[in-house]
UniProtKB/TrEMBL annotation:
InterPro entries: CBASS_pafABC_assoc_protein, WCX_dom, WYL_dom. It comes from Castellaniella hirudinis. Residues 256-313 form the WCX domain. Transmembrane segments: none annotated. Coiled coil: none annotated. Residues 159-225 form the WYL domain. This is Helix-turn-helix transcriptional regulator.
Length: 324
């Protein structure tokens, strides 16, 4: 039984290595493979992985570039890499779409552990593969911007990986942070959530010694490191969905108000189709205007939205949410 178990472990390791070797012109080093395997639960020393690579490259269409250290490996262009397990066209489509939209919202080690699947999915969607109508689907759909498109800000190398890993494992973070006003400070925080708002990523956290939550823009974090490897207990009173519903990502404090304003009919007609709230009411006002009343969260983003209509909006009132 011991021999059979050892053989099985060796076979599984070889399959995991084969799944992660990219097709030319991309390459991968022994160190990169070692990190990916460790993230997937295969704790092996780098010498063991190196021996496996030497045997696999000698037996299969895997090229080892040993011109300089570290050695780099790749499937040869004509090779047919192993597909383990095989992904059908529908699964390949799902994975390619998931990779695009979850790239910044999954912990780094999970993304790395899925790299082999993503690579296989992309190969299956190539024009020379029998992907059929599934291959055409990505060109038929689009998530479009509701505001002026902006390029994403630059995040310092390693910051997203460190933040997502600490968030995943409930480890405290030590950050070198510069706020929008240019003030720079070293802070220790308890990471509680990660949110994507348009092109920006925000870390929701609690500063050491405080009980309230704050949102920090990831592109303003100059460097990040785990302050402790001892997991903390997540606050029972924190809910990321409620944090969002309270308007905290819209620069609000969770205060609900009864908003009332008038808007030109031709400008505000869309509010009949996409209301501000479930209790929204719209009535005829003087001339060509509509009077809109809705319970919403007060926030700076709400004020900006109203100002965006210019002279098409007037008579803005913010009343107590219990007002008639």
């Amino acid at each position: 039984m011991a021999t059979r178990s050892s053989t099985l472990e060796t076979t599984l390791l070889a399959l995991e290595i084969l799944r992660r070797i990219p097709r030319a012109p991309r390459t991968i080093t022994t160190g990169e493979l070692h990190a990916q395997l460790a993230a997937s639960g295969f704790e092996r020393d780098i010498r063991t992985i190196q021996r496996q690579l030497d045997m696999l490259s000698a037996a299969l269409d895997i090229e080892r570039n040993d011109d300089a250290a570290p050695y780099r490996y790749q499937w040869l262009p004509h090779a047919k890499p192993l597909a383990i397990p095989h992904l059908n066209a529908q699964e390949s489509l799902l994975l390619t779409l998931a990779e695009e939209h979850l790239r910044h919202l999954l912990p780094a080690h999970l993304m790395k552990s899925l790299e082999g699947f993503f690579a296989q999915a992309h190969r299956n969607m190539e024009p020379d593969r029998n992907a059929g109508l599934e291959r055409e689907w990505p060109s038929k759909i689009r998530v479009v911007a509701t505001t002026q498109p902006l390029l994403p800000p630059t995040i310092a190398p390693g910051v997203l990986d460190t933040v997502s890993e600490a968030l995943y494992h409930n480890h405290r973070l030590r950050l070198d942070y510069k706020n929008a006003g240019g003030r720079r400070q070293t802070i220790e925080v308890m990471p509680l959530g990660l949110a994507q708002q348009g092109p920006r990523l925000y870390l929701v956290c609690r500063f050491q010694g405080f009980e309230n939550e704050r949102s920090l823009a990831l592109h303003r974090i100059l460097s990040a490191e785990q302050a402790s490897t001892i997991p903390f207990e997540r606050p029972r009173d924190f809910d990321l969905a409620k944090y969002d519903a309270d308007g905290r990502f819209r620069f609000g404090e969770g205060e609900r108000i009864r908003l009332r304003f008038r808007i030109k009919r031709e400008v505000g007609h869309h509010l009949l189709e996409t209301p501000l709230s479930r209790d929204q009411t719209i009535t005829e006002a003087d001339g060509d205007r509509l009077e809109v009343t809705a319970t919403v969260v007060d926030s700076a983003m709400l004020d900006q939205w109203l100002r965006g209509f210019g002279e098409a909006v007037d008579g803005v009132e913010k009343l107590d949410s219990g007002a008639p």
